[in-house]
Each structure stands twice: as C-alpha cells, then as structure tokens.
Amino acid sequence: MARRRLATRQRTTARPAAEAFTQPIFAYAPGAILPEEKIEAIHAASLRILATMGMRIQSAEAREILVAAGAEDAGDDIIRFDPGLVEEKIALAPPEFLLEARNPARSVRLGGRHAVYSSVGGPAFVSDLDQGRRAGTYAEMCDYLRLVQGLDILQQEGGGPFEALDIEQERRHLHLHHAQATLLDKNWQPTGLGRVRARDGLEMAAIALGTSREALTDRVVFTCIINSNSPLVLDGPMAEGLIEMARHGQATVITPFTLSGAMSPVTIAGALAQQNAEALAGITLAQCVRPGVPVVYGAFTTNVDMRTGSPAFGTPEYAQAAQISGQLARRYGVPFRSSNATGANACDAQAAYESQMSLWAAMLGQAHLVNHAAGWLGGGLTASFEKLIIDAEMLQMMAAYLAPLEVDEAALGLAAIADVGHGGHFFGTAHTLDRYATAFYAPLVSSWENHESWEERGAETCAERANAVWKARLAEHVPPPIDPGIDEALRAYVARREGEIRAGIDHPDQ
Amino acid sequence: MARRRLATRQRTTARPAAEAFTQPIFAYAPGAILPEEKIEAIHAASLRILATMGMRIQSAEAREILVAAGAEDAGDDIIRFDPGLVEEKIALAPPEFLLEARNPARSVRLGGRHAVYSSVGGPAFVSDLDQGRRAGTYAEMCDYLRLVQGLDILQQEGGGPFEALDIEQERRHLHLHHAQATLLDKNWQPTGLGRVRARDGLEMAAIALGTSREALTDRVVFTCIINSNSPLVLDGPMAEGLIEMARHGQATVITPFTLSGAMSPVTIAGALAQQNAEALAGITLAQCVRPGVPVVYGAFTTNVDMRTGSPAFGTPEYAQAAQISGQLARRYGVPFRSSNATGANACDAQAAYESQMSLWAAMLGQAHLVNHAAGWLGGGLTASFEKLIIDAEMLQMMAAYLAPLEVDEAALGLAAIADVGHGGHFFGTAHTLDRYATAFYAPLVSSWENHESWEERGAETCAERANAVWKARLAEHVPPPIDPGIDEALRAYVARREGEIRAGIDHPDQ
Question: Is the pTM of this model over 0.90?
C-alpha cells in the first residue's frame, strides 16, 4: 500500500509538461487507400440506392420536409432521392465550424485541419479493476465526467459515459445534462433521441451559456449523434432529434451503423455504399431543414464475426472502411467523424491494438471528430475507468506524432555533433541541456522503467497503473468554476421538467 | 483445466483461413510527414557531417578500402567522405533483390513494393507467463524457432530469438545456425559480429542450400544487421562482418542506434542527420567492397527518458523518426529497415500500443524489412513467447489492411441491398453465403466474444490466450522436411568448428 502510494505520487508529479488544452492539427496529407475512380464508384452506387430504393423515414414531418424539397414519396414511409437533389443539398454544408464551450478558451474548431477527440458516450455499463463490470450510478458517472474534464487531450465530452441506472430513464437525461453543464467547462454532446430530449438539451445548453434556446441558432454548441437504423431506415425519434437540432442551427453527426455481413452487405465496398447512402440521406434532410447548417459525415462500418454474428471492432476491415469514409467525406467537403473502437473485454493488449487500428485509421482518414476516443471497452457496452486513461495516453501520443518536426539549423544540431565527437555522448551538452525538459513526449501511464525497477515496484500491468492514475487524478481534481446563478438556473430547470415529466406533461414548448 | 483444453482446441481449429506464406505488398502511397526540402536539409546535414567530422572506423582493412576509393584518411582512425563519393556509391545499390530460403517457395523479394516481417533477434532473456523472465536454453530457443517457422506471417527469422546460455559463447553461433538451417525452411539472419562468425554463417547457409560459400556471391541468402557505434564510430567486428558479407554478395542492413539525447542530439532532426550520416558511411563502404551489392538502409532512432537516460520505444518521436527514415531511404532508392519496438515489460496494453505505433510508422514509411517484428519485449532485452503470438496477430491484421479492397459491381452488392430491403438483415442472402467464409480477417488470439461468454471462459486476458495459443501450436507443430545429408553435413561442420574453437584455431580460411 505504501508502495502504491509512492508510485502514484511519483507518477502524478511527472505529469506531462505538454498536457494542455489544444487541438490536434492535421499537418500531414491524409492517407488515401482507394483510387479516386473507386471512390466515385461508391458515390454513384449510393446515389443509385437513394434513387431506386430510397430510405424508410419514420417521421411524417421529415417526409414532408423532404417531399417539399423535391424528393419523391414512394409510399410505405419510403422517400426516394433524386441524385441532383442530394448533390445540391450536400454542397450547402460548411467544411468547418466553431463549436462553443462554456469556457470560451475551450471552444474548438471542427473540420478543416482541426480534430476533436471526444470521450466515450452511451455504454450501458461501467467498469474498473476494483469492481469489474456493473450497472453505473449517477455519482460514478460524475466521477467519470470529472476525469474527462481533467484530461486536456479530450476536447469534448461524448454524451454521458454510461447510464446512471439509479435515476429513472425518463428524467435521466436532465441529470446528465446538469452534470455535463456544471462539471465540465468543455463542449459536451447531447442525446438526439426524440424531440423532447433534444429540446431539453438545447434549453440547458442555452442556460449554461447565459443565452436562450432561440438565440442558439447563431452559435454551434452541439454535435448530436444521429444513427440511421440500417439498412435504409431512419426511425422516428432519430428523425425528430435531427430536425430539432438542425432547426436550432446545431450540428448533427449522421452515423449509419452498417455492420458488414449483418445490417449491410458482407463486402466492405457494399457496406460503404450503403453507409454513404444513409449518411447522404440524413445530410440532405438536415440541409432541407436549415440550409447551411453544420453537419458531420459519420462512419461506423465494421464487420461481424461470421461464426457468432456479433460485431468486431478495430479489425483490418474496420480500418479500411474508416479511412475510405474519410475519403468520401473529403469528396463532399463535409467534416468526418470516426471512432476509437475495440471488442476486447479487458484493458489488455487486444484492447490496445484494436484501439490503435481504429485511431490510426481515424488519423489517416483525418477524422475531425473522433467519437468514443477514450474509455470505450467491450464493443461499446462498457465505459472503463482504466481504458479512459490508457486511451488518453494513446491520444496524447497521436497528437504529439501529429506535431510537425522542426528541421532548422538549430534542430539539426551539427555544432553539438561536432562538440561531442566520435564515440562521446550528448547528455551534458548545451544543446541537450537547453531542450531536455520539453524535448520528448512525457507519458501518462506508460512505464519506461527497466525490468528490475519495474519488478521491484510490483510488476504492474498498464491497466493496474491506469487504475492508480485515475484515482490520483480524481483525488487531485480541481472543478472548473461555475457561476452560481447558472448552476441555480440549471437546477431549477431540472426540477421543473422532472415535475412535468412526473405529471405526464410533454415539453411545454412542443 | 478441462475448460482450458476445450478453449485451446476451439481456437486452433479456427485458425485463420488466410494464414498462408505470402508477402505484404505496398499498394497504397507511402506516408510523407516531412516536406521534400526538409528531407534535403537532413541529407545535406549528413553529408556535411561525413565531410567534416567523418567516421571513426576501427578496422584497418575498411579504412584502406575507403581510402582506395577516394575517401580521406584524417588520422586517428577517422575517415572523411567527400559528398560526391557518397552520392556515387549509394547510387550503385539495387532498389530490391531476391532473398533466398532453403524452401524456394519461401524465398522473398526485399525492396520495391515488397515487405518482409522478421522475428525478434538478439535479446539476452526469454520470458513466458509460466516462468517469467529468465536466461534461455538451447531447447527453449529451438521451441521458439519452431513457432517462428509455423507463423506464416513471419517471412524471415531474425537471427536467434535469445541467447542459448547453456552453450559457451564462442561456439553458440554454430548451434544457432544449425537450428536455424534445419528447424526453419524460411530465410534466417546470421550474426555479423566479426569475420569468423560471419564466415561460419556463410558456410552453413551454403551447406543448407547445397552449394558452396564461394558460389553464394551470386545469390542473396542473408540480410546481416550491421550496427554503427553511435556517435560516428564503426567498430572493428562490425566493419569486418560488413566486409565479409558484402564480399560474398550478401545484403548488409546498416543500422545506427542513434538514441536521441544520449548517442545523438536531443532533437529528432539532429538524431536523423547523424543516423543518415552513419548509414550512408556504411552503405558507401559496402559499395566500395562490391559495387552493386544489396544493402538496406537501417533506422533505429528513438529517444531516451530524460529522467533516467534509458531508451524509450514506440514513442511519438520514434514513429516520426521511422517514417522520415523511410522518406530518406526512398530518396536514395535503397530498401528500408524499421522495427516493432516497445519498452513495456509485460504483454499488456502498453506493449500493444507502443508496438502499434512502431508498426504503423513502419507501414507508412514502407519498411521493406521489419526487424524484431514479433516477440520483442522490455526494450529488446527479452524475447517473449506470448508477445510472439500477439505480434503475429498484429502483423496479420496489418497485412490484411494492406490488401486492396475490391470495389466492383459484385462487391458493391446493390442487388443484395435491394433484396434485403429496408430494415432487413443480410445473414441469409446469397451474396453473404457466397462470401462469408473468407470475407473477413479471422483472428489468431483476439477474443470477439461478448462479455458473458468471455467471463464464462475464465475472463482471460489477451496474454493468457496467447500463452494457450503458443502451447497448442507447439504441440501441433509439423517440422519442415530436411534432406538428411544436409543435416549430417551441418552437424559435421559444427563438430569440426567446435574442435577448432576449443583448440584455439581461428577459422581455417582466414
């Protein structure tokens, strides 16, 4: 125990000097793995799907909006899209936008050369090494948010790390948003499921920013995940959420879950054609609601394990699909969203190599929004405290890799090489002493000890060290300041809406 | 125990269909992270280092060869190189070559679009989950070689996975080569330390191929690692090994160990300028010995932990340096060697994410030879049985990622999408049934089970599954056929040389 405490103290005082709130910038060229004519073939196939099959859209309002814009009502809730309509609407989407946070210093640009890393959102379970996987509580969820707030490499919170199952489902989103709006001063994601919840998110974001829901239309505060129900269905709650967000000028992240072999063809090319069709349909709807509203091209194509039918993540096929999705999004000039996904159930080597496959594909595809960038475990059913730390390390490493190398006379260091001479060493040279403190990436959870020191400290695995790191960070956590008036207004909103929900009253502004 | 046996059987019968001896092919463009003018700046800086500082070369024969070619003897064992001489000699190196194996079906191309993955070579220790880290024996080393032989993703054995400490050092290389030549039918690396050992390797490779040492000059059977002693020293045994190999037409892999902050400047640009100078000096020497002999540009620049002075691996700086080294090697039209390195002491998440950083940098840098591609642990001091399996999985995944995606009418699958319709599933369609068996990468050690099944099977980590995998593979191992006459001739050679070594007689052909 004494040893653990010592180790923890040493680690936290050695916190990376480079840790500071910044955005990774794409300075290198993106990686294209399909030639342009094959990207065009996928594009053309998806337009054919939209023109002939169309999408089933389970919202009368959405269908009306699309038909008014020139889409064809094919009956049975199916809307067919003329290629010209799709091309025209997609061209309206901006290539990048400012995404505002409660703390203006933590507002970020999304799109262009700017990337945003977002923490895990939506799992049913929480896990840590002490208690294993379990249903989560509101108090634990708040702890998770505090860690997300403290990790500067996460520029956005991803929409609630796991369900707080000690709060009834109907009013859970209110408490989530209260926690997000007060425990974080960085941007956070809302829930896009249905109009009522979308509107509660908008109201609470407006309160947190000291403005009104109506005034939000001129500022982007949300990237709201909208999933199609593959194949080729946009369900009612998702369509409502999309419309509500777009109407308020907020960004929707249109993300089909085209699981190759199950909800889309067993070929990755076919899965991508279908993904592209569903994404373009959602983007078209958003642009019909409000021309020029920010949208993000979301991709989540992966494959199933054909023996069991369950999804696999971070596979070679997943990496190819993510990178090609980036090529498609660039073709449309729309920001691109990918993920950091793994099917592993433990914070072990598999979790890391599948996450790395996902992250490198996101980086090479130049994903502007990496959703679930930190904390995702077990195919997305679990938010892990240790994985949060391990992923943060991987993200920090990727950001450091993305920082362009200096190559000037001083960096080339020929004078130092001449000073040291043949067979010497550089430890004591002025060139080294001037730079050593910030020369290299300093790790968060990696052990660079030799085997003997590592054994002496207890031969901890990376996951065990991550356990100590999150506990130490939580113990040292400094909450971001919040205007007491804003906190009070948020509490009052939650109380009022809980009363309405208990009384069975829908959102008053419906 | 019964459960373990069952799990093992299931895993091994599910061996990837795709597992077969092939070479990864670079079909995508390499990743350039430095603009061309900065590559030229590094190139120019390294030529200045060679022209002004030169290299200390601790072999009179090597110095004579270089001076005869026009280099300047600056006294004190230092040779200075005129830029014109370096440029002229480097231009002689071939961009790719055939590397022969005992089994001709396992000969490989090295360079151009072809990659070779090589198993770990050189560690002092062996480790597995059962016994931890320890000094290794010859019997254990043979088991390791059997696993390397059986893993088709490893196209080459990397020069002895760890030291067999139950054999005296002076004659250890003879037994290593006997094991390599008989337990493997794929290509293997020799030791390049000193003329005597280099010549023993050549003699034994010749016997294994049914030819003579003299006749090897027309066939490449070796890629021999030659490390400079940074900064700017090529020691005697390495210079001798280089000359001996080049004289016999064999490929040398000139690899400076430019540890940034210790044996090279604390700036990665400076470390790369020095690496490039040392690599070009070695390549120049090889081309002076035998014009047109294959050489490989080796890179191993990484950084130290500035708090302890010990080396770190798979860091952001390492990844940048590896990728830029690929750019430099492409500038010279010389094949490029990188590595799969990690500083982790356990087969945990850190081992995987540092290895992935190394492997993606090698892939993007288009490393034609990935040395230590499988099995390396603990900063290269340990060869791990479990890491061998985990790395093989990562390499197989990378090779699958590198296989270009089919995008034709059949792959786009529009007919299947039309058949399934809105909200259906693709499990039973003809399009799926025709392809499902080979559609996706099948894992070697990853678990894609859901949490419940994974827990029921014992909640094994990836390292624990890897432990079961290598034992099962060893139990099922089928050795490659070997001509008894060749085995006999190799044994006779080892016996004769052991006698000579005991009697203090140097290599008879010296």
Answer: yes
